[in-house]
Design goal:
Largest sheet of chain A: 5 strands, parallel
Strand order of the largest sheet of chain C: 3-2-4-5-6
Largest interface: A-B, 29 and 24 residues
Shape of chain C: globular
Chains: A alpha/beta, B alpha/beta, C alpha/beta
Structural class of chain C: alpha/beta
CATH architecture of the largest domain in chain A: 3-Layer(aba) Sandwich
Number of strands of chain A: 9
CATH class of the largest domain in chain A: Alpha Beta
Largest sheet of chain C: 5 strands, parallel
Oligomer: heterotrimer
Number of strands of chain C: 9
Strand content of chain A: 5-15%
CATH topology of the largest domain in chain A: Rossmann fold
Strand content of chain C: 15-25%
Mean pLDDT of chain C: 90
Distance between the termini of chain C: 22 Å
Shape of chain A: globular
């Protein structure tokens, strides 16, 4: 039985399309007077956040509440990394509270995997971002947003043949990892664009193309996703200066002018305006950045419903 | 009087079955066996010289929650070892004559296995200034192996000085080869999998760059270098090259060790995110393991050393990044070597004796007592091993205080039936005595 | 309406309504809806997916033909309101499409293919409650096979079909299926089960 959503790789194409079609139905809820459904009445969803991420947490919180679940927010400031309560003890506490699902954000890659597979909890585990590993619900909401603008096929969810450029700090980006996997599953052609220092070792084995040349890639793209680049990466020697990074890999008005008419600009947020994206691009008609946030709630509702709504989950990974 | 053992019908280091008499701490002529000698039927068993580990973490003093000298030497005896070198990264660090003598004395008191303390190269393993190497060498513990293991002596000048300084007492510097800047926050072997798992990569070059530098330094100052836990194919290649040079020259020497887990396990295990597989240096690729086996077979890698690294449960029962590096090794080393080297035809039992007893004793300069041939008049340090047996590893059965074995649930060949330290059975019938 | 016996397409399976029977039943239901509500003003037809939706559309077409008035029609998915949601694996949602005018103050006619236990209709009433406040709710079904488990009845019935609990009633409708038919079989089969 499938119980967890830990990686975008857990989702088959059928699974992913089921999440997206379910999200499409749930998206309509936002337009109704009563934005609530009874599907998860009596179920408890715990948001376990070891890292601050207000936007992801409130997105999951809104999703769970709109499905009538009880929501417990657990901001565990000190992970065992900082010698606070250990992940295990926190998990045992949640188990004792009767959590049906644990939505976990953690700074350590693989922490949700440990939570799911160490026998500490029986609940479903949803990865809400782990270290530099994955962020599968972000990828789902990105794919959902793309499908609403670029989708084709019978279900309207197919991204077959669509070209997506993911630009920036791929090395440290869980968003890029999950998107590369999911978009490939959905049939899109992904190109990762970054300076060589910010592409992971072994990226040639990923189901993607890579490029160091932003200007060569974006005129052909149907969607351009800009990743956040922290200025501090400069200190790690990943690039010489913020200015040089912006010149070579930032999306500004001049580059935006080379995009096709239908091409959308995305950003998982939070943006570093002036670094990877200029304000005029972020606020332009092409930008679907605000819509991504709205879609995030619908996609997370779909994930929670499909994992918890029935006697057993309809999507997800392994045992 | 101690018990006299008449070991019947045993294959000595893989040879034709014969008898061995262990009397008064030495090997004696079986023809002289007294009538009250305890007979051990060793049909089908192989007798090896007591194993010598050049790389063990006994954790005492300081982390007695993970291991003590007593429990660690129990595990050593169960694994067929009669001598272990106890690494210096204790709390306090074994960087003074006082600490090394304490560890040495604890080993003598436990009596299961001779404990030879390794001295720290630098004060507090800080890599800043040399510890009192001479004082440790002159102490009752007679330290000859010096290592900051766990940390690399990364400062080239300090490494040069250490290599030079230990010449005065025929010491050896055992380097933990890990370029620190290239491995900041590193979690696992850098490769396709580390990129996918989002775990910070530990590039092979971080090990190889230090080895390359150190062999050049050893040549330059005409000293003796030992490379700890070689883990990459590139390192094997560098050491092979260096050994060729050293053999022609004759004024310097480089030796190297490989750990059982690097011979058998690969980085693919990290996919479980279970930190039971987290170790320093990290598990590498299958190609690296293959190169290590080949290097061990052709003598490029001189010895097998366990890097037995006990950790309490809570240090492994957590997320990968928060977990401690290291895995148990003493009780499974011989089985893993059988599986990877003997059963594959890469080594015979004489080769195993060389790499797990004779050579490590020579490198540690304890050859007068350990790593001796199983001949009349030699110290009765013997292990009886049943290569036809097999077992499923159960951590709960470990004699170690810790349970962090990466082989749990795996079926491994062979079983240590008995271990004799100077004629006294520390293990008999597979049970600690 | 008297039952018309038909050739059985396979052993154990019996067609009780064919294409023409269904067409006539829907025409009659359409007239009954108009009579009961004294015209089509303020009516909203909501089909319950899957097969209630094409039925609602066909009724809307008939009303338009008779009255010359386009009755708003849409669909109402009740999946999340089902009382057996937790008893089966999580199910895919089906479309809910409420006509632009909404349902507040209107007379909503729910349309479904088979009325059986009444649980689906109970779920639909709950679902409606979250969408708005109709003036009245009525129920039209193609087949009423009895065995109610809740105090629910249909206002408009295409055919009353006494069945045994072990029998299965299957409705196929063009647009979703190949043919228009209602069949009874002794065993489970693919298609619209009720």
């Amino acid at each position: 039985m499938k119980r967890h959503l830990l990686s975008a790789a857990d989702l088959s194409r059928d699974d992913a399309e089921l999440v997206l079609t379910t999200a499409a139905e749930l998206r309509e809820l936002a337009d109704r007077p009563i934005k609530k459904l009874p599907a998860l009445r009596g179920r408890t969803v715990v948001n376990l956040f070891f890292e601050d991420s207000t936007r992801t947490r409130i997105s999951f919180e809104a999703a769970a509440k709109r499905l009538s679940a009880d929501v417990i927010n657990f901001a565990a400031k000190g992970s065992s990394l900082s010698k606070g309560e250990s992940l295990k003890d926190t998990a045992l506490t949640l188990e004792a509270m009767g959590a049906d699902a644990v939505v976990v954000r953690h700074g350590a890659s693989g922490a949700p995997h440990r939570l799911a597979h160490s026998g500490w909890v029986r609940s479903s585990v949803v990865n809400a971002g782990d270290g530099t590993h994955e962020h599968p619900t972000q990828a789902l909401l990105d794919a959902f947003t793309m499908s609403r603008h670029l989708g084709a096929g019978k279900s309207g969810q197919s991204l077959d043949g669509r070209r997506v450029a993911i630009v920036g700090d791929v090395l440290h980006s869980r968003v890029a990892r999950s998107n590369a996997l999911l978009l490939h599953t959905l049939g899109a052609e992904v190109t990762l664009v970054a300076p060589p220092t910010l592409l992971p070792v072994g990226v040639e084995t990923w189901p993607v193309e890579t490029s160091y040349d932003l200007d060569g890639v974006i005129p052909k793209a149907d969607a351009v996703m800009m990743l956040r680049v922290q200025r501090e990466r400069m200190n790690g020697g990943f690039f010489p200066t913020a200015r040089e990074y912006s010149r070579r890999y930032g999306l500004d008005g001049r580059r935006m002018a080379t995009l096709q008419d239908h091409t959308i600009v995305m950003h998982p947020g939070p943006m570093v305006r002036g670094m990877e994206i200029t304000a005029d691009v972020a606020d332009s008609d092409r930008s679907v950045i605000v819509e991504q946030v709205t879609n995030g709630v619908a996609v997370r509702m779909a994930v929670l419903y499909l994992l918890l709504g029935g006697s057993e989950p309809a999507v997800g990974g392994e045992e | 009087m101690s018990t006299t053992y008449l070991i019947k019908n045993v294959s000595v280091v893989g040879g034709t079955p014969t008898d061995l008499l262990l009397r008064d701490g030495v090997i004696a002529d079986p023809a002289d066996a007294p009538s009250d000698a305890e007979t051990v039927d060793a049909t089908g068993l192989v007798a090896l010289p007591g194993l010598v580990d050049l790389h063990t973490h006994l954790r005492e003093p300081g982390r007695e929650d993970a291991e003590t000298v007593e429990t660690g030497t129990h595990a050593a005896a169960m694994g067929g070892f009669t001598a272990v070198h106890a690494m210096a990264n204790t709390e306090p660090v074994a960087d003074t004559a006082g600490v090394v003598e304490q560890v040495w004395r604890l080993g003598r008191e436990a009596g299961y296995c001779d404990v030879f303390p390794v001295g720290a190269v630098t004060v507090g393993l800080q890599g800043e200034r040399l510890a009192e190497l001479g004082a440790m060498a002159d102490s009752a513990a007679r330290v000859r192996v010096f290592s900051d293991d766990g940390k690399c002596v990364s400062d080239a000048v300090l490494m040069r000085r250490a290599l030079e300084y230990v010449k005065a007492f025929d010491g050896v510097v055992a380097q933990h080869a890990q370029e620190p800047r290239l491995t900041e926050n590193a979690q696992m072997n850098e490769g396709e999998l580390s990129g996918r798992l989002g775990l910070a990569g530990w590039p092979a070059v971080a090990e190889e760059a230090i080895i390359a530098r150190d062999v050049l330094l050893a040549e330059h100052v005409g000293s003796r270098l030992h490379v700890c836990h070689v883990s990459t194919a590139g390192s094997v290649e560098l050491i092979r090259w260096a050994k060729g040079k050293a053999a022609k020259d004759g004024t310097w020497d480089v030796t190297a060790e490989a750990c059982p887990h690097h011979l058998l396990l690969t980085d693919a295990l990290a996919e479980t995110y279970d930190p039971i597989y987290k170790v320093n240096p990290p598990l590498r690729t299958a190609a690296d393991a293959e190169a290590l086996r080949a290097g061990l077979a052709d003598g490029t890698i001189d010895i097998v050393a366990t890097d037995h690294a006990p950790h309490p449960h809570e240090d492994k029962d957590c997320e990968w990044a928060a977990a401690a590096f290291g895995m148990l090794g003493l009780e499974t080393a011989l089985s893993v070597v059988q599986q990877t080297m003997v059963d594959t035809g890469l080594l015979d039992w004489a080769g195993v004796a060389e790499r797990m007893s004779y050579a490590p004793a020579r490198i540690g300069r304890i050859s007068e007592q350990h790593g001796r041939p199983l001949e009349v008049g030699e110290p009765a340090n013997v292990v009886l091993y049943d290569p036809a047996a097999s077992r499923t590893v159960d951590p709960a059965e470990s004699a170690s205080l810790s349970r962090n074995t990466p082989y749990r649930g795996m079926e491994l060949p062979g079983r240590v039936v008995a271990t004799f330290l100077r004629g006294r059975a520390t293990v008999l019938d597979g049970k600690l005595q | 309406m008297p039952a018309h016996p038909h050739d059985t397409p396979s052993p154990g399976e019996r067609v009780v309504l064919d294409e023409r029977d269904i067409s006539r039943a829907l025409t009659r239901i359409s007239h009954e809806i108009l009579e009961r509500n004294k015209g089509a003003a303020d009516l909203v037809l909501l089909g319950i997916p899957s097969r209630g939706v094409p039925l609602a559309r066909r009724i809307a077409e008939r009303i338009a033909a008779v009255e010359g008035y386009d009755v708003p029609f849409g669909s109402l998915d009740v999946t999340m309101y089902r009382d057996d949601l937790r008893m089966k694996p999580a199910r895919a949602l089906l479309p809910t499409e409420i006509p632009p005018g909404g349902i507040d103050g209107r007379t909503v006619v729910l349309v479904d293919d088979v009325l059986f236990s009444g649980r689906t209709i109970r779920a639909a009433l709950d679902a409606l409650n979250d969408i708005g406040r109709p003036r009245a709710v009525q129920l039209a079904v193609l087949v009423d096979r009895g065995h109610r488990e809740l105090p629910i009845r249909a206002d408009f019935v295409g055919k009353n079909l006494p069945t045994s609990l072990v029998e299965r009633v299957m409705v196929t409708l063009t647009g979703i299926d190949d043919t228009d038919a209602v069949t009874i079989s002794a065993t489970a089969s693919e298609g619209g089960l009720a």
